[in-house]
Amino acid sequence: MSTLDAAWSLADAWPVAASSIGVVHSGGVETHGDMQRRQRLASVSKPLSAYAVLVAIEEGSVHLDDAVGQTGCTVQHLLAHAGGYAFEGANPVGKPGVKRIYSNTGFDMLAQHVEHSTGIAFVEYLDDAVFAPLGMHNTALEGSCAKDVHSTAEDLLQFVHELRSPSLIAHETYMSAVMPVFPDLAGVVPGIGSFDPCPWGLGFEIRGQKSPHWTGTRNSSSTFGHFGGIGTFMWIDPVADVACVMIAEREFDEWGMQYWPAFNDEVLHCLGR
């Protein structure tokens, strides 16, 4: 018997071929499914890549106020999807700091900036700075840092442990990443909806008061994480002291918003949150 049996039952009813889920809470770690099944993470790649940028900032190779891209755009803007760049495409579609425009392009620009600043290919830097020290041995970047990290739920749990008790970066740097940056900006969470404000940290989406949302109604406004269009998510709720990772064999579409919030609520309910 598991504390989370009711939540696992909900997951078993999902219209997917397979799912791998891990939950971390004060009582330990509970898992469901094949935790070593490996697949692309899609946009859950972004928090991992952002964490490498934060390590580079701590090392002094990169700075939040470094200019990158169009006039007025900085590393901080790009990490927070406030650089004025579209989802894809090299040309800016707005001015920095005006609107939350979710952008894969911005993250690719960050990778190039880290490479230029450190002299190390970003694929190597990400592995050396994040994957290797956390023991994420089945995780690798195989393309764009915005969407092409391949990993397992087991490895993602190692990242979650880091996010619950950071060791690779200072506490101050960590807090700056998981709190809203440019907090008043309106914007869109792709596949979910438009929000005003649309809070985001440095590479991490912040739940805030967004409704509807892919996390649950029981999740606190301080919950941070990310979901991926290929059917993946990761969230950490510092108020509930609970975190969850999930990798499914089905791309995010209507099924995600139909099933994920109820599952996340059940996880928190089972744990008395």
TrEMBL record:
Residue ranges annotated for the Beta-lactamase-related domain, each copy included: 36-260
Pfam families per record: Beta-lactamase
SUPFAM superfamilies linked to this entry: beta-lactamase/transpeptidase-like
PANTHER family for this protein: BETA-LACTAMASE-RELATED, CONSERVED PROTEIN
Record-given protein name: Unannotated protein
